[in-house]
Amino acid sequence: MIKFNIYGNEEGARVHFLTKEDIAKNDFNDYLENKNFKAELKDILYLPNTKSDSEIFIGLGNQDIKLDDVRNIFFELGNLLRKEKEEIATVKMPDFGICQKKTIMAAYEGLRHGEYNFSKKTKSKDEIFDLTINYIAARGPEEKLQQGVQISTDIMDGVFLARDLVNETGNIIYPETLANITKEKLEEVGVKVRIYEEEEIKKLDMKAFLAVGGGAANRPRLIVMEIENGDSPKTALVGKGLTYDSGGYNIKTAKGMVSMHSDMGGAGSVIGTMYALGKSKAKVNVVAVVAACENMISGTAYKSGDIIDTMKGLTVEVKNTDAEGRLTLADAIFYATNNFKVERVIDLATLTGAVLSALGEEYTGAVTNDDGFYQELLQAAEIAGEKIWAFPYDEDFKKLNNSDVADIANTSSNGAGSVTAGLFVGEFVKENTKWIHLDIAGTAYRSKAKGYLPKRATGIHVKTLYNLLNPIDC
After folding, report:
1. 109 is in an annotated binding site
2. Which of the following is catalytic: 20, 35, 234, 252?
3. What local confidence, expressed as pLDDT, does residue 207 receive?
4. CA 20 to 30 Å from 445, out of 140, 158, 259, 297?
5. Cα–Cα dist 159/155, whole Å
6. Phi, psi of 90 (to 5 degrees)
7. pLDDT at 27 over 70
8. Distance from C-alpha of 116 to C-alpha of 339, rounded to nearest angstrom
9. Is residue 319 pLDDT above 70, yes or no?
10. How far apart are CA 368 and CA 456, in angstroms?
11. Around 10, how many Cα atoms within 13 Å sit in the side-chain half-sphere?
């Protein structure tokens, strides 16, 4: 547990920030060099003292510090304090020339990231370590800075909820349990949640969604979440909710299936965002939709070569049953943009392996029909430290989804897989609705930890969506 005292007493381990220029001027430059401390960005040196306060030196490089640098610095600082059992530390923050409220939020967030752990090992124990940080801000009123810490707390609670949902395996999280947990957690913070079971989904005529879930013993659920709290334009969020994806009759490899409980990364991020917004009582108008199901093999499963209907009325040739997410999104995004008076919509999905080939685990791929809306999202993502890269929106790419026997095919055999998958989803967005598709297949679930992002689920874009929908002032 982390306690943040803003302008608190100066006690405990003392944290010093040094630039390369500071090192050159320092009287004990030789000593620091002998300790291999060169003041490079994020260099950290711990000097314990049994008789007095310990000293911690943190490098700032040439001091062109961004918010994400602050997150990483405090992530490393928190890890060091926990490792060395330093329960109290005083941090005198330099003025980096950026918003003080956002700076303290980034600092607190970095510390919180270090607390997250997901393990089902029977011998593992979650160590409870109470950490007190006396944060001496460079400037700014305490009330505003404290408000920033509270907002960051709410956002990180949403990120951790998203991570927990995505990390849990398919025997724990399946459509029914995902729906139940969502309802329980979100209604606690004032979000309206409605769960549709299979018969109700049939009445909505969501045929593509039902086709994907047709082979599973765990039956599908449609999860609809709403916040109506203000005069802002209404936004829809749609998250891919494949709680397990075997690939269907186009079955995945054994290795490829191991992490397929994470195929609801989009749903996790959407649910986490709604939780964060609800906790902070944000003045927003948002509806979020998750079509939750499993893609399994059985006598009732849909098959490669099938021609299926959709809620919109378009027919789809199923060329690959492992291109299932876009089919569930087709009905979900059509439902969201046609049944609610939304001006814009964002869908998030662990949709394609192609995006991993193109952008690795560093960037989320995007497709959009509105550059202005995309620029808003990009600004929110920059504050969050979450990277997004837009693929070209080109009518010629749409032709790659053409079918000889149906209105559209669910895969293309001519490359550009991330773009064509996104454009497939875009065909089901209501006309004149601003739309952004985010392919998070590389960023929602990491193969290894990097910086403050853990291995496995990251909770990607909870922060970005919060910043977009409820912008943080300074």
Report:
1. no
2. 252
3. 98
4. 297
5. 6
6. -110, 130
7. no
8. 37
9. yes
10. 27
11. 10
